[in-house]
UniProtKB/TrEMBL annotation:
Main localization of the protein described in the UniProt heading: membrane
Subcellular location: Cell membrane; Bacterial flagellum basal body
GO cellular component, one term: plasma membrane
Keyword Manganese: no
Record's keyword terms, sorted: Bacterial flagellum, Cell membrane, Cell projection, Cilium, Flagellum, Membrane, Transmembrane, Transmembrane helix
Its membrane topology: Multi-pass membrane protein
Protein name per Swiss-Prot or TrEMBL: Flagellar biosynthetic protein FliR
InterPro entries cross-referenced by the UniProt entry: FliR (IPR006303), T3SS_IM_R (IPR002010)
Protein species of origin: Undibacterium fentianense
Pfam families recorded: Bac_export_1
Regions crossing the membrane: 12-30, 42-61, 67-89, 96-114, 126-148, 180-205, 217-239
Length: 267
């Protein structure tokens, strides 16, 4: 007959709660599951089933009570680690949103903002369109499966422990924040450059013929050129987005390692 005392029961619950906290923190932030449009019950259920799979393979921490100060500190530690990993994926989509905002402003569609149910905020129509395309590519390439694989692998690279050290480098996470501007500039540069040439041509045209109404012909031309350029670059978005997703997954895998040191240049 199998007998389980209270200490064994508390240890089993703690061995499940700690990975469940990291997984739930990741799901709450990382798109597309972290969007506000996804019901909370779905997020909790997904995190619960993933934790049920992961928990038996994680070595238990001995002599740690779940409701003690040390146990609560471990829970907060796992929550921060999960949120940090989800933040890496979120930055990629934020860079795409930034590219859409830059394209919309340059086209003259900065006023065309709509309510975004995913973020519960307002964003431009171009940004929402690019985010939808990015989400479809994200799912079609099975990046969400690779994302969960990286999350499960993180329990080996960043094991659950009672030390005050977070287990990952905050510097690497801060450096990753610059990817928002890199992705935004990379995706929006062709359209912005084409619209800049269009505006220069319109400026030369109005200089040669001052009687032309710049506001009457300028907006239709810039909007038309913007949509034409957007139509031309859509078939070529797969490769840069795939590289961005791969870069994000590599960052999640290497989050537990120290970031590369940049030598200081002496004046």
């Amino acid at each position: 007959m199998v007998s389980i005392n209270s200490n064994d029961l508390i240890a089993l619950i703690a061995a499940f709660v700690w990975p469940f906290t990291r997984i739930l923190g990741f799901i709450a932030i990382a798109p597309p599951f972290g969007n506000n449009g996804v019901p909370v019950r779905v997020k909790i259920a997904l995190g619960f089933f993933l934790a049920m799979i992961v928990a038996p393979s994680i070595p238990a921490i001995d002599h740690v009570d779940l409701v003690s100060i040390t146990g609560i500190a471990v829970i907060l530690q796992q929550l921060i680690i999960g949120v940090a990993m989800g933040f890496i994926v979120r930055v990629t989509f934020a860079g795409v949103e930034m590219a859409g905002e830059m394209i919309g402003l340059t086209m003259g569609l900065g006023f065309a903002t709509f309510y975004d149910p995913q973020t519960r905020g307002r964003s431009s129509a171009i940004a929402q369109f690019l985010v939808i395309i990015t989400t479809l590519i994200f799912l079609s390439l099975n990046v969400h499966l690779a994302m969960f694989e990286a999350l499960i692998t993180s329990f080996k690279s960043i094991p659950i422990s009672t030390s005050l050290h977070m287990g990952f480098s905050p510097q690497r996470l801060a450096i990753w924040g610059e990817e928002i501007f890199k992705i935004g500039m990379l995706l929006s540069m062709p359209i912005v450059a084409a619209l800049l040439i269009t505006n220069i041509a319109l400026g030369i045209l109005t200089r040669a013929a001052p009687q032309l109404n710049l506001f009457g012909i300028g907006f239709p031309i810039t909007i038309t050129v913007g949509f034409l350029m957007l139509m031309l670059i859509l078939p070529y978005l797969l490769l840069p987005l795939e590289n961005m997703f791969q870069h994000g997954l590599n960052t999640i895998h290497s989050l537990g390692s120290a970031p590369p040191t940049i030598p200081m240049k002496r004046p």
